[in-house]
Fold:
Amino acid sequence: MTQNKPMTTQQQQLVTTLKAVLKPHQLKLQAADTQHFRTGWRSGQGDAFAVVFPDTLLQFWRVLEVCVDADVIMIIQGANTGLTEGSTPSGTDYDRDIVIINTLAMNQLIMLPKQAKQHQIISFPGATLHTLEQTLKPLGRTPHSVIGSSCLGASIIGGVANNSGGALVKRGPAYTEYALFARVDEQGQLELVNHLGIDLGTTPEQILTNLQNYADLEAPNAQAQNLRVTNNTNKASASDYIDILRDVNADTPTRFNADPSRLYEASGCAGKVAVFAVRLDTFEQPKQEQTFYIGTNAPNTLTQLRRHILTKFKNLPEVGEYFHRDMFDVANQFGKDTFLSVSKLGTDRLPKLFELKTKLDRWANRMPLLPNNLSDKIMQSFSRFFPQHLPSRLLSFHQQFDHHLILKMSDDGIEEAKSFLTEFFADNSGAYFVCDKVETDSAYLHRFVAAGAAMRYQAINEHKVGEVLALDIALKRNDTDWFETLPIHIADKIDKALYYGHFFCYVFHQDYILKKGVNAEQVKKDLLAFLDTRGAKYPAEHNVGHLYDAEQQLKAFYQNLDPTNRFNPGIGNTSKHRRQCGC
Structure:
């Protein structure tokens, strides 16, 4: 039930108990107040009885205790930036009330002492990738991921929970075997599991208070506490990924959401446990980087380039981002305002701008005389008054070539790439140039705005086009026919097919803007069936959410974590109802 209706006795008791744990501003009950948190970033929404906002780890634990005692569903939510509806309710067909637990207020980061290898960090549930990147930069370190093309607010733990990948070629999916999390066991009892490899005490209260005090510089004696690392043998990143990537003849993808080798407690959990903290590796910042911009009209040219670099190069790329000419064009026209906002205002202000945009749209949607997607239409109109924002050599390659690759090399790999590219394009169709700083920044920012630009195109043209089907897929490593040719019965239903992605990993984002009046569900079924014939896996780096069927091994993993189905039920199109387990 979305609150605005009379409460039952049990619901009144739940509210009373939550109020004993939380401050007034940490509990939202009214439908208008909870709408933002019940609605997905791109799609999907559902009912929730309450949304709560704990701001300490111990308070988070107390909320979980209340929810378990009340036998309500718990949906753990970070920044709510997922693209597959995985951190919001979906519909109204649950068998219990839902409490959404938003974790963004618990946003601390801890740099581990030197006895922890790889300059590791501990992230609390609300800490974001953007904050981690800025924290590590003065230390000459980088995180597992840099911000992707969808948004800037994504949380670190959200990435781990969803097997998220990203643009950095050598890192692979977000992964760790170190976590502090709560689960509900087979008998319905809440338990705290400390697998951080750090001695924090024995009881939940001791463990959570000690970790909180270590992170909270205002707490008494916080800096004097000695955080003792007891386990350095587990993985805190996908450290075997480079070997997997180099095996270009393997008949499986490099990474995908349901990969059994990447499902471990918090990693890939998709909200089926409540994660309090994870421990992750950080990485040395290269001393020097150089970007090369590559264009060709022959997909096979990029096939050969990829296979040579992955098998022959001593130094693998830092980044290898692909997009097709059509995606370049849509991003140029419909991503200009985002491009200019980031380039002029910087990334720090962008999360707040996205938040204001969302609030404006939700207000406008309640006004019957105002159009849908009001903010998009306003910003698109204003963008027309600004001059061309892309450098001339990027625009020239857009005119010449269908396929574009942004290749970033570092340190010794720079000369290795220069030598190879000169020889390679002497014998293969296409061309490249070495980017200056303006071209480098513009190329990556242009790629960054691509996903939002596809959504903008649909919003502006909603009177003549249908829905957007956004898929992210992983191709087999040995697939030489990577560029998609759709069967006629599917292609006839699509207005635009937009392709972009992480080329060396063979992970592609494919946005299909459908023709007006087309049955989106049927097209999606046809597309997924076609992908099955190619041996592709999906989703590749987003959670299954409520948009994909979970594979059998993923369902088994979820059930092992959450045997009574208390956390985030229904994801992967599984059951939304309580599960009796007397195991």
Remarks:
- Confidence is low (pLDDT under 50) at residues 218-225.
